[in-house]
Amino acid sequence: MQLTTDGLKSYLEAIEGAFGMNVDYAMLIKxxxxxxxxxxxxxxxxxxxxxxxxxVTGNPDIKHVSTSYVDARx
Length: 74
Known about the structure:
Blueprint: E1 2-5, H1 10-19, E2 24-33, E3 47-57
Parallel strand pairs: 1-2
Antiparallel strand pairs: 2-3
């Protein structure tokens, strides 16, 4: 099984408690900030300025590290 979460630190303990080390687990950490092409606008939405895919345990397939979908394969 492969599992991906966002960067919330409390997931580390929860995943270990639920699965131990018997899971391919990665974190997808997104960085947000103001769009550098825009001027400073107080209430403008932030833009995703980058992301990092970090292996936590096991051997997750990096091309499938995403928090955008759920895929259950048995």
